[in-house]
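Tip: read the tokens left to right.
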């Protein structure tokens, strides 16, 4: 299961020693409901190697503003605390796997 990431905990997560994948989503977003289960599967598959979390855009304005999230779903990928890749919009699991494998 993906971590719940908030304005309060995202900086701690990004300063950790693992690569980080953040899924920006909202309950009312149709494409987000397609990406959400993929993110949960990836969280289980990469457990211990990558931190994978979900950010509810309706409840976390600070992180949404900091990374300029305008469309959802948006998935941001970080290595060593730096943004290295992103995917805007729904995509197949294989694309996310490809992007994640570049981080590990």
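Filled-in amino acids:
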């Amino acid at each position: 299961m993906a971590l719940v990431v908030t304005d309060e905990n995202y900086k701690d997560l990004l300063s950790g020693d693992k690569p980080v994948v953040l899924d920006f989503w909202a309950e009312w977003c149709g494409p987000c409901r397609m990406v959400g289960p993929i993110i949960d599967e990836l969280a289980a598959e990469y457990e211990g190697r990558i931190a994978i979390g979900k950010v509810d855009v309706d409840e976390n304005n600070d992180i949404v503003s900091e990374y300029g999230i305008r469309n959802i779903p948006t998935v941001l990928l970080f290595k060593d605390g730096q943004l290295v890749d992103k995917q805007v919009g729904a995509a197949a699991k294989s694309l996310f796997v490809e992007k994640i494998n570049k981080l590990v």
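The domain at 3-101 is CATH 3.40.30.10 (Glutaredoxin). Residues 67 and 76 are 9 Å apart (CA to CA).
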